[in-house]
Design goal:
The N and C termini lie far apart (95 Å). This protein is α+β, with helices and mostly antiparallel strands and 831 residues long. 61% of the residues lie in helices and 8% in strands. The protein contains 33 helices and nine strands. Strands 1, 2, 3, 4, 5, 6 and 7 form a seven-stranded mixed beta sheet that branches. A two-stranded antiparallel sheet has the order 8-9. 48% of the residues are buried. Bound molecules: flavin-adenine dinucleotide. Flavin-adenine dinucleotide binds next to strand 1, strand 3, helix 19 and helix 20.
Length: 831
């Protein structure tokens, strides 16, 4: 009996921790256990009583608040305050910017799946839908990516269309003449434009994203809003935002650009203002902007504003032609033609009213930027890079059916299938994350950690998708020209990787670093309490934290040992997704414990242990991506035909989560804790996830190779030109023609196999000669021949690549220019 009781001690403790039982329950259970043990083991009355009294006294220290605070919390408090890393104001503002959304649930170890399923799946209003179908499609039609590249810019007609149709004012409210669109509508427009060309997509995306309009909407004075917003909405102003300097890229708060508060002349009067020196680079739209937001450090050495001498980062709006501003040259980012260039200014004097939000917002720029970044970053790059993936899935899938090698459509080869499966599932997952996150913005969230997750992971998955697409289409993707539908996307993928928080930095420093503080239910409270010297608040947070960590460890162990079969999931979810919810709950609990253990044992050094931090961030991010995929599957009505996409995407996330856990545990500095983590928390029964199977990959790849509602859902809103002279238009037609011709091909193959048709002397060098011979031999009908002929014509269009004069026609252009006067030549060349 006593051995039985001894063995039951651990499960009893685990059960209490699992249920996050209050300390009084621990006390009652502990006393009952000691009593039973005393009787069973024959300890006798006094010994049993002594054991119970000692136990009650030990727990009493924790139960009686005054005793606990004085004896236990106070020393921990002192230690915590000493070890708290020093943080600059800008770091603090960056950490605290934005809101916590679904990622908070994943961080807390017990995600409420009913809550996830309750988030409304975004929808367009009729007006937004019409803008997407009509104006956005027309803008796509007007833009020819190759032509834009040749001329270094979009044609004037396209610029005019963008401005006049309100593309630059999608997020500006109607009262200021803007479209007042939802974040989701904005994302849809950017996604669709990106399926055509980055030129209109980026040109439209930047003013609607982290630009002056967003800053003005949130922080602008009424006068600034009245002046700028209607002009921005009408396209009379083109905005840019200038933060990055040659000396401060990722570490943007370290910009050397500086302004000094002083008196100066403005419009004939002496006013209080700022004299600013700045040197910015990489600024999108700068060469064509009429006004730009400028971030700089502001100083007030003479205390003319009556406050501190060092005011901090400040954002001002400066017209492009303001005296002292030097603008207009351009960079050339990887063959992209959207405008990007430097902005410089020497002793530029501007009145204080130029500060966004007026003089009271001097020094508030970093907070403003961080808040807006959370919203903008949730929309622009996820939209642009999902658009690229959708186009890749649509066009590369078609190409893989149309292009034959070894007498077989290349998409039928297992090696190509592998790439196609990744393309399909990554596109499905990225779109799910894009839509769910845009929906969060429309719910009023500014989810800073989620914005970093989608920025990083959608751009990385897009890199994989486009790389896979390039591999599948071979030389067709490599030779640039009007018939190449993927080469430009391939060239420009690194831009998305670098901007809005370069990816290595985002993964290594931001995701977990910010997540651990923002999403953790107790850490921020502990930090606040420690900074403010509030021992009572610290006590509450600390003991909440201890209970939380113990409970997560127990839950991870129990769920690991039971295969998570007993975990409750939201009612009514698709039966074949139930296990995913259960396993994600287990991972969430294990992650929460691992995060706590990492923070408590590594402390401030975790910031420098970027590889560990990155892998912890991977776990959180993959759980978010899997959640979005599950949500999408439900929101779209659990489409049976889409099931392979959903399974592949989630199984891939699960496998990546497992690998990331492995990576943290393998490299955890304390090897004893690593052992405990591996065997008692994370993998008590070993690793159970493997990569998505070949069979599943085959099913996903097959979905890309033929028209179907699933393919249409996966690639919804890809701009599809009807003109077969355009590469994507030709691919669409060629896919249909190839499928129509396949039965005819099969008949011919069968006739040859049976020896009914054995053409000899096919020697004209025409790959299609055999079809004429088969027609004349009566093996195929005239109708069959017509199908084959159409297939062949379209196939040829699809597989041919562009060729050019050996000097790209430059010599004839030079000759023409030499025939003109030198002055004429210069002017027209520049034009
Ligand atoms: C085409 C283009 C458009 C842009 N548009 C704008 C714009 O409109 N406005 C604007 O203000 N800026 C803009 N930028 C700037 C962009 O945001 C920066 O390029 C970006 O912040 C990275 O800075 P960097 O290029 O100087 O790289 P660096 O900061 O030099 O970084 C180089 C590498 O080091 C890594 N790294 C740096 N620090 C760390 C760390 N602590 N841990 C791990 N890795 C780290 C980075 O991830 C990166 O991989 C644009 C840039 C480009 C290329």
């Amino acid at each position: 009996m006593s051995s039985l009781l001894l063995v039951s001690l651990l499960p009893l403790a685990a059960a209490l921790a699992y249920a996050r039982a209050p300390l009084t329950a621990w006390l009652a259970a502990g006393l009952a256990w000691l009593l039973a043990m005393g009787i069973a083991a024959g300890w006798g009355f006094w010994l049993t009583l002594l054991a119970m009294a000692l136990f009650a006294a030990a727990l009493g220290v924790f139960l009686i608040e005054a005793v606990r605070i004085q004896w236990v919390t106070a020393p921990v408090f002192a230690l915590f305050r000493r070890s708290l890393p020093t943080m600059s104001q800008t770091e603090k503002e960056a950490l605290e910017a934005g809101t916590v959304w679904w990622e908070g649930e994943l961080f807390a170890g017990r995600p409420d799946w009913t809550k996830l399923q309750g988030y409304p799946w975004p929808k367009l209003t009729p007006e937004e839908q019409s803008f997407l179908d009509v104006e956005t499609s027309e803008l796509c039609r007007l833009t020819r990516d190759w032509d834009c590249t040749q001329h270094g810019d979009m044609p004037a007609e396209v610029w005019q269309y963008i401005k006049s149709k309100g593309f630059l004012g999608m997020i500006i409210p109607r009262e200021y003449g803007g479209k007042g669109f939802s974040a989701y509508a904005h994302s849809q427009v950017v996604t669709k434009l990106s399926t055509r060309s980055s030129a209109p997509a980026v040109t439209v995306m930047v003013p609607n994203s982290l630009g002056p309009a967003e800053l003005l909407l949130h922080y602008g004075t009424p006068e600034q809003k009245q002046h700028y917003l209607p002009r921005l909405a009408r396209g009379e102003e083109i905005p840019a935002f200038a933060l990055t300097s040659p000396w401060a890229g990722s570490d943007a708060a370290a910009i050397p650009d500086a302004g000094v508060v002083c008196r100066g002349e403005w419009q004939g009067e002496e006013v209080l203002g700022m004299r600013i020196n700045f040197d910015k680079r990489y600024i999108t739209l700068a060469p064509v902007c009429t006004v730009f937001g400028l971030a700089f450090h502001l100083y007030d050495p003479e205390r003319l504003l009556g406050g501190d001498e060092v005011l901090g980062i400040t954002c001002a709006l400066i017209p492009h032609d303001h005296p002292g501003v030097d603008i207009g040259r351009r960079h050339f980012p990887l063959n992209a033609v959207w405008m990007n260039g430097p902005v410089r200014g020497r002793d530029v004097f501007v009145p204080l009213d130029f500060i966004i939000g007026g003089p009271k917002m001097a020094g508030q720029g970093w907070r403003m930027l961080m808040e807006c970044l959370a919203a903008g970053r949730s929309i622009s790059l996820p939209g642009a890079k999902t658009g690229m993936q959708k186009m890749t899935a649509r066009a590369v899938g078609a190409y893989a059916r149309v292009r034959y090698q070894f007498k077989t459509a290349i998409g039928r080869f297992e090696g190509v299938e592998e790439a196609l499966a990744r393309i399909g599932a990554n596109t499905y997952l990225s779109d799910a994350a894009r839509v769910m996150t845009a929906g969060a913005i429309d719910l009023g969230e500014k989810p800073s950690v989620v914005s970093a997750i989608v920025k990083y992971h959608v751009t990385e998955r897009a890199r994989q998708t486009v790389n896979d697409g390039m591999d599948v289409i071979g030389g067709k993707g490599i030779c640039l020209g009007p018939q190449n539908f993927l080469g430009r996307a391939y060239q420009q993928i690194p831009i998305g990787i670098t901007v809005e928080g370069a990816n290595i930095l985002t993964r290594s420093l931001i995701l977990f670093g910010q997540g651990a503080i923002r999403c953790h239910p107790y850490v921020l409270r502990e930090m606040h309490a420690a900074r403010e010297g509030d021992l009572v608040a610290f006590d509450k947070a600390l003991w909440g934290h201890v209970g939380f960590a113990l409970s997560n460890a127990a839950r991870a162990l129990v769920m690991g040992l039971t295969g998570s079969h007993f975990v409750r999931v939201a009612q009514g979810v698709a039966p074949d997704t139930r296990r995913y919810y259960q396993q994600l709950t287990r991972f969430s609990a294990a992650f929460a414990f691992l995060a706590d253990l990492s923070m408590s044992t590594l402390g401030g050094t975790l910031k420098r242990k970027e590889k560990l931090s990155a892998r912890l961030g991977d776990i959180l991010a993959q759980m978010y991506l899997a959640s979005a995929t599950l949500r999408r599957f439900e929101a779209e009505g659990r489409q049976a035909a889409d099931v392979p996409l959903m399974h592949w995407a989630i199984q891939d996330c699960m496998f990546r989560i497992q690998q990331a856990f492995e990576g943290v545990i393998d490299n955890f500095p304390n090897r004893l804790l690593a052992f405990v983590l591996r065997h008692f928390v994370v993998f008590p029964l070993g690793r159970s996830f493997v990569m998505p199977s070949d069979k599943l990959g085959h099913q996903v790849a097959a979905l890309l190779l033929e028209p179907s509602p699933t393919r249409d859902r996966l690639t919804a809103d890809v701009y599809l030109p009807h003109d077969v002279e355009e590469p994507v238009g030709a691919l669409e037609a060629a896919l249909a023609a190839t499928i129509a011709a396949e039965p005819v091909e099969a008949r011919l193959r069968e006739a040859r196999r049976q020896g009914r048709f054995d053409p000899k002397n096919l020697a004209t060098g025409d790959v299609d000669e055999i079809w004429g011979v088969a027609l004349r031999a009566g093996v195929i009908s005239a109708q069959d021949y017509a199908l084959i002929e159409r297939r062949n014509t379209l196939r040829d269009k699809v597989i041919r690549v562009d060729d050019f004069a050996y000097d790209f026609g430059l010599k004839s252009v030079m000759r023409e220019l030499q025939g003109q006067s030198p002055a004429q030549g210069r002017v027209e060349g520049a034009a």
